[in-house]
């Protein structure tokens, strides 16, 4: 009898999802005039006030934006680091301290202060989940576990994680998010200080690979939802390798419950919970966009090799389950990696897809971010980059990321103009990966870490500082290079004139999009015409003109 009641309870819950209370939709201006994503060839650009926008971001520490007095000295720090976009949490517990009673004082102050300092905002909705846990839900949700049920581990013990199978959880989260988006539209639609929204934060199941509550167990025994199977069949040729292998092992079955279709394993448990996390988040996103259709994304806490799902946040929008998220949350515009993992290139490769532009909303704030910003934007065409807890420095102007952002601010018009072409690329070096080859136009660039020259005593050190740069072709024989710690030589790809020579190199800066030349770099500065060099610990922009001969 209990199983029958559970089944019909779960069925009623699932059937109720499409018929949640519908909020009245506001009359919007032309949505193309709002911040939006513009797909162009191989790149996606963020458009703000009808112009492409490159985010030089910084994410605040989790609690900084809970007190505007605490924030007051932070804004000048961010300005000194040339931050143009602040990623800030919005806390459900402070937005709706009593059910149905909303306080917008914090968000109003954040918007006003951002405008005063000429910065944009990306809001991080700390709603049902933050780093898997439900620690930011209001007290009236936390203390009513009967109305707002939690997930359970295998032993049946509740966890501090709201269940994605409970309609009351979804409805409460949705109402708060709708109220937030409605208020932002009313306050900010004209000035567009808020340009993007992250829905929840680092979703995932702990300490097991999936929820083992009665409602979840019942859903696990039901047939794999038809929308997911339809997606998998339509995208079979491009599925993530791990998912494809799992499905292939059962003979690509198209009907049956989760273990019938994908086999019995923790990987199947993760697919299951990923689907229901995605469905829940999709409903939150749809409701928010109905009020104010800003671009919305989800971030992921990256896993590590050899770690089992449940030991990392299982079911989050990770590369091996990205297709489940694409099928289950079509309202989400893209999925993003949060970086506390050293393999920067590997993860960016997996998140940069035709259906998923790269944005790095959170990355460990250390010295390496200065080089990684150039590489993410130059090589992947990233829409933006954002070190975490960026305010946690007493010397903001001296931070390496400040020097990188200063150059990228100058270069933004040029970068945004070239993102849709094959005329831009990036490089990233340390001692283990000290050489790269880039081809632009009819030239090949041999790019290396500056220490490969052997000129610095530090070249003998066990570790080399991470360095990087981006390079943009501006004319058939003209290029702009910006970054630090790189040395570049050149080859001509023209068989009739296979040798490339340096016609000239000028250092300088861009002022309001116009190039202002400084020193002509020749002699020792280009090694008597042998290379372009920006030494380690120096940051600069150089314009290069090449010629050919034989």
**Average pLDDT taken over every residue:** 94
Query: Helix- and strand-based class?
Result: alpha/beta
Shape: globular
Outline the low-pLDDT stretches.
Answer: 1-19
**What strand line-up does the widest sheet have?**
4-5-6-9-10-11-12-13
- Rg over CA atoms, rounded to whole Å, is 25 Å
Q: Give the number of DSSP strands.
A: 23
Residues in β-strands, percent? 25-35%
The percent range for helix content is 25-40%
Describe the structure.
The chain has helices at 2-16, 68-71, 74-80, 92-95, 105-116, 139-142, 167-188, 214-221, 226-234, 241-248, 258-262, 266-291, 322-328, 344-351, 369-380, 400-418; strands spanning 36-40, 43-48, 51-53, 55-59, 85-91, 120-130, 150-152, 158-162, 194-201, 296-301, 334-339, 360-363, 384-387, 424-429, 435-440, 443-449, 467-475, 478-484, 486-492, 499-511, 514-520, 532-534, 540-549. It is an alpha/beta fold. An 8-stranded parallel beta barrel has the order 4-5-6-9-10-11-12-13, surrounded by 6 helices. The protein has a 6-stranded antiparallel sheet with strand order 14-17-18-23-20-21. Strands 15-16-19-22 form a 4-stranded antiparallel sheet, with no helix packed on it. Helix 7 packs parallel to helix 12 (266-291). It is globular. The model is unreliable at 1-19 (pLDDT under 50).
Give the helix/strand layout:
Elements: H1 2-16, E1 36-40, E2 43-48, E3 51-53, E4 55-59, H2 68-71, H3 74-80, E5 85-91, H4 92-95, H5 105-116, E6 120-130, H6 139-142, E7 150-152, E8 158-162, H7 167-188, E9 194-201, H8 214-221, H9 226-234, H10 241-248, H11 258-262, H12 266-291, E10 296-301, H13 322-328, E11 334-339, H14 344-351, E12 360-363, H15 369-380, E13 384-387, H16 400-418, E14 424-429, E15 435-440, E16 443-449, E17 467-475, E18 478-484, E19 486-492, E20 499-511, E21 514-520, E22 532-534, E23 540-549
Parallel strand pairs: 4-5, 4-13, 5-6, 6-9, 9-10, 10-11, 11-12, 12-13
Antiparallel strand pairs: 1-2, 2-3, 7-8, 14-17, 15-16, 16-19, 17-18, 18-23, 19-22, 20-21, 20-23
Helix pairs in contact: 1-8, 7-12, 9-13, 12-13, 15-16
């Amino acid at each position: 009898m209990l199983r029958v009641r559970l089944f019909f309870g779960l069925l009623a819950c699932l059937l109720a999802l499409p018929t949640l209370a519908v909020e009245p939709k506001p009359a919007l201006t032309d949505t193309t005039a709002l911040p939006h994503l513009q797909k162009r060839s191989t790149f996606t650009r963020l458009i703000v006030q009808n112009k492409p926008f490159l985010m030089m971001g910084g994410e605040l520490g989790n609690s900084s934006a809970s007190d505007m007095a605490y924030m007051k000295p932070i804004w000048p720090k961010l300005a000194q680091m040339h931050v143009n976009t602040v990623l800030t949490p919005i806390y459900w517990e402070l937005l709706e301290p009593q059910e149905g009673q909303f306080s917008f004082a914090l968000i109003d102050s954040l918007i006003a202060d951002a405008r005063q300092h000429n910065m944009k905002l990306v809001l991080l909705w700390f709603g049902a989940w933050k780093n898997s846990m439900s620690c930011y839900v209001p007290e009236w949700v936390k203390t009513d576990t009967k109305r707002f049920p939690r997930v359970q581990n295998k032993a049946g013990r509740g966890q501090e994680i709201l269940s994605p199978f409970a309609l009351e959880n979804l409805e409460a989260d949705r109402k708060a998010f709708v109220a937030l988006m409605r208020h932002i539209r009313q306050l900010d639609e004209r000035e567009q200080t808020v340009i993007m929204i992250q829905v929840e934060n680092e979703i995932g199941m702990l300490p097991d690979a999936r929820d083992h509550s009665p409602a979840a167990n019942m859903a696990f025994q039901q047939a794999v939802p038809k929308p997911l199977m339809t997606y998998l069949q339509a995208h079979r040729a491009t599925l993530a390798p791990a998912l494809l292998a799992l499905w292939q092992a059962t003979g690509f079955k198209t009907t049956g419950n989760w273990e019938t279709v994908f086999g019995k394993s923790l990987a199947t448990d993760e697919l299951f919970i990923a689907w229901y996390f995605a469905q829940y988040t999709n409903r939150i996103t749809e409701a928010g966009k109905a009020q104010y259709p800003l671009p919305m994304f989800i971030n992921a806490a990256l896993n590590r090799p050899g770690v089992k799902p449940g030991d990392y946040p299982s079911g989050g929008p990770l590369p091996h389950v990205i297709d489940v998220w694409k099928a289950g949350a079509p309202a989400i515009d893209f999925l993003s990696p949060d970086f506390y993992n050293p393999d920067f290139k590997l993860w960016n490769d997996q998140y940069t897809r035709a259906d998923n532009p790269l944005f790095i909303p959170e990355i460990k704030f250390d010295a390496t971010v200065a080089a990684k910003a150039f590489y993410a934007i130059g090589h992947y065409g990233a829409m933006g980059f954002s070190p975490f807890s960026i305010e946690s420095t007493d010397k903001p102007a001296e931070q390496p990321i400040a020097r990188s952002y200063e150059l990228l601010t100058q270069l933004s018009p040029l970068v945004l103009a070239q993102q849709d072409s094959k005329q831009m690329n990036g490089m990233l070096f340390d001692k283990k990966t000290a050489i790269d080859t880039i081809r632009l136009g009819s030239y090949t660039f041999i790019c290396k870490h500056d220490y490969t020259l052997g000129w610095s005593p530090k070249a003998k050190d066990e570790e080399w500082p991470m360095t990087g740069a981006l390079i943009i072709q501006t004319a058939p024989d003209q290029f702009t290079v910006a970054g630090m710690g790189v040395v570049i030589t050149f080859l001509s790809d023209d068989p009739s004139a296979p040798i490339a020579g340096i016609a000239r190199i000028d250092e300088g800066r861009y002022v309001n999009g116009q190039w202002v030349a400084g020193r002509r770099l020749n002699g020792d500065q280009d090694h008597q015409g042998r290379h372009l060099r920006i030494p380690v610990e120096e940051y600069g922009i150089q314009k290069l003109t090449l010629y050919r001969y034989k």
